[in-house]
Amino acid sequence: MSSLDTQAIPLSRRSSVSRRGGALVLCAGMSLLQACGDGDERPVIWPPDEVSPSVAMDVLPGTYPNRLDVSSTELVEVAVLGSEAFDAKQLDARASQLGDASGKNWVGAKEARPAKDVDGDGRLDALLVFSVAELTQKQVLTPESSTVRLRARTKQKGNFVGRDGLADSKAPQVVLPAPKGPHAVGTFERAWTDTGRDEVFTTAAGDKREVLVRVWYPASVPSGAQPAPYFLQLHEAEFLAESLELPSPAFGFVYSHSYQDAAMVSGSERHPVVLFSPGYGMSRILYSAVAEELASRGYVVAAMAHTYSAPVAFPDGRKLPQTVQVTLEDEALNRKIQDAWTADARFVLDQLTAVNANDPKGRLTGRLDLERVGMFGHSFGGSTSAEACRVDARFKAGINMDGTFFGQPAAGATVPFFMLAAGREEKDPSWETFSQNLKGPGYWARVEGAQHANFGDIQLLMPLVRAYAPDFDPASIDLGPIEGARGYTLSSVYPLAFFDKHLRGLSTPLLNGNSSDYPEVDLTVYPR
């Protein structure tokens, strides 16, 4: 039941990232190259990022992750990627700046190189060159910085902003395990409002329930494309890092393998859908590795942020804190939270159904197989998976990853259900009750050496945490002695095998019993 203790990471190094307020005036005290062009003597006034359209960019084209030795590198190349909305040939290099994550410090481009197609999408991309010495002198690049921002301007005076990762090669880093499936992975986020449901965790009149969703899917990716940041929203990464008492840029040092807004994999195949619900108080992004693995195997994965049950940052800049907490002492509150999370899952499936009928982006229309829908979750999210399968016949299979069953465990499950556990459940009567009342195929896998937090990316991020807190004890956040990469493997191969069998009808010998490949797992099969 417990989630990551957000007060458990004492750090000897701290850094804070502040949000800038109004517009930033460029030109004054800067060279012509850094400021205004076309003979215009008025300063270039940049509006806040929120009112400027975004443009895709690629620092160090052809390199991933983007890391350089700031003590020896002289110049850094930045590609501003052309798109339907952005004509890179119209970029005004004299009014293009690279800044730090906070938006306080800016350096102008030294020159523009001839445009070329660096990402393989058939469009020309602008190439800007910046001085590494200037970037470090102005503290755009520091030993702890992981992200740079771009302010670009077209010759028609249109303003664009962008963001990409860039870090000193000496900085700590974590690269998630590469997905093993045949597909590249695309990703995007959507904020959806359930206009038919009042928000039960606020008192403001007229508040409606909002759910932020991250989607991963099998994609077609141009040869030169670069993966997206681990967090698509910079302010959400900062928000979570601060809640975990990590330095604000910490999650910029985590590198994943998904491509933002990539095209759906070609063809007409309809892909099975799985929803994901995170542990209580946890970000859905901290389960990206298993989501990428499933998407690379042909699944569409939609991970939910349950508003007010964890810190959630929306794309419009709002930061909504966690205001409610599950507790063994208040069954009524637990029921209220469980009902809200279950309703979130059903609403998100409604939205995906609408997107399948008519995706405004044209990406997923007709590509979702809504006859093959599953759900999985960790901790309280695992309980939500069981409840969603109980109350909504559209969910055909479910997984609970080490979560107490807060719904109606005595009802069991009428659909195939997998229970992935770390041993704590032996003292949790809800697990025994649930397993005794299974009405369909069931599985109970116990992972030796794991604890409650060994079912997400946290176990993979320990090298990064230890870089900032050498004396950190993983047990303080319920991480077991199992090595992180191995823990991830076990928490991904079993969900994949389960969904392959019960959503796709594939042969999956792994679910027949204990496997010599995974001796840490003791698997009980419940035939019905």
Describe the 3D structure.
This protein has helices at residues 132-137, 234-243, 288-296, 331-357, 380-391, 429-436, 462-468, 484-504, and strands at 24-26, 44-46, 57-59, 67-68, 75-80, 97-100, 106-108, 111-116, 125-131, 147-153, 159-165, 167-168, 174-175, 184-198, 208-220, 254-255, 258-260, 263-264, 271-277, 300-306, 312-313, 319-320, 368-378, 397-401, 417-421, 442-447, 521-526. By secondary structure, the protein is of the alpha/beta class. The strands form 7 sheets. Strands 14, 15, 17, 18, 19, 20, 23, 24, 25, 26 and 27 form an 11-stranded mixed sheet that branches. Strands 3-5-9-8 form a 4-stranded antiparallel sheet. It starts with 23 loop residues before the first strand and ends with a strand. Residues 1-47 have low confidence and may be disordered.
Q: For the terminal residues, how far apart are their CA atoms?
A: 28 Å
Q: Largest beta sheet, briefly?
A: 11 strands, mixed
Percent of residues in β-strands? 25-35%
Helical amount among residues, as a percent range? 10-25%
Total DSSP helices = 8
Supply the helix-strand structural class.
alpha/beta
Mean pLDDT: 87
What is the overall silhouette? Answer: globular
The poorly predicted ranges are: 1-47
Tell how many strands the DSSP assignment holds: 27
Radius of gyration: 24 Å
